[in-house]
Amino acid sequence: MRKANSMKNNKNKIWRDLFIPVCGSALLLGSAMLGFGQTPSSQPANTQITKTRNTNIQSIPNGAKLRFKGVVIGRDADSFTIRDRSRTDYHVLLTDETSIKSYGGIFRGGKRYAVADILRGLIVEVDGRGDAQGKLVASKIRFNESDLRAAITTDTRVNPVEENQERLAGQMDELYAVAAEAKNVAGAANERITSLDDFDVQESATVNFQLNSAFLSLKAKEQLDALAAKTTNARGYMIEVGGYADSTGGEGRNFRLSRLRADAVIQYLAVTHKIPLRRFISPMGYGETGAVANNKTSSGRAQNRRVEVKILSNRGLIQNASSPATASPTTPATKQ
């Protein structure tokens, strides 16, 4: 009996020696797991919310040289926005030194073009360097003449009805860029919609012409002189020029004559008053459309032989201006 009790006591002692260390280890392990489990909860719950939202406008390092190809999706007085194949947008600045030409062939060089010929929807190749603001200062711009002809053709057809489409301009931007990128696949012509929602008409003038003539009269030059004076020291403006004809002659001839009249006005303002070509929206000849008087009378036809010139100011620049210099073309101010 004593031997049985001794064996039982030894067995109980062995269990106590094993149970206490195991329990202690389990408690320590549980505490450690509880501590680690609480660590993530100590992090802020809104860590991802504080990340900066991507604006999709690519900033270019200052001085970095860059060449890329894309479609023009927005145009301003001194710059335009281009979107490349990866759907990344860049701001491109234009200067008087920017070389704008079409691609040349094997035995001939490309044709030079004006800044005003860079239209929305035109596919271009741009060479330049980044500036301190992350924009690309263009030194060279190249494009195919076939793309430019398609853009001009679309411009001729779209502009007469463009006023009714201005309300849809913001919604059409994305569709327009996609259509330009898929031009070769769809076989559709480029469509240009100039958004005037961001511009206000500050000044305007109408000059008239003699029958079958695109020469400026003395009175017309005086009107243009007065209009050009409004641009002195002004910033952030563009000039829209549209030519018209009366119903005399054929439709095709009237379109050409109205464009020649618009070109004559731009040439006078650029040469006589030194207004940079980049300030002009691509001139447009509307032919005998858009008549303001009855073409059945001689006085009515005289009123319809005209060019309308409008000074447009950027509404965003006016609202965000920090100095009077950008307030309005009608309010002269010293450039900073």
CATH class of the largest domain: Alpha Beta
Average pLDDT confidence is 76
Tell me the name of the CATH homologous superfamily of the largest domain: OmpA-like domain
The fraction of residues assigned to DSSP E strands is 15-25%
Side-by-side strand order of the widest sheet: 1-2-3-6-5
Give the N-to-C terminal Cα separation.
Answer: 113 Å
Structural class: alpha/beta
Instruction: Tell me the helix content.
Output: 25-40%
Q: Which of globular, elongated, flat, extended, rod-shaped describes the shape? A: elongated
Question: How would you summarize what this structure contains?
Answer:
The protein is α/β, with parallel strands linked by helices and 336 residues long. The protein has helices at residues 2-38, 145-158, 169-181, 183-186, 218-229, 251-273, 298-304, 315-319, and strands spanning 65-75, 79-84, 89-93, 99-102, 123-130, 136-143, 199-208, 237-243, 284-285, 306-314. It has two domains: 65-186, OB fold (Dihydrolipoamide Acetyltransferase, E2P) (Beta Barrel); 199-326, 60s Ribosomal Protein L30, Chain: A (2-Layer Sandwich), CATH 3.30.1330.60.
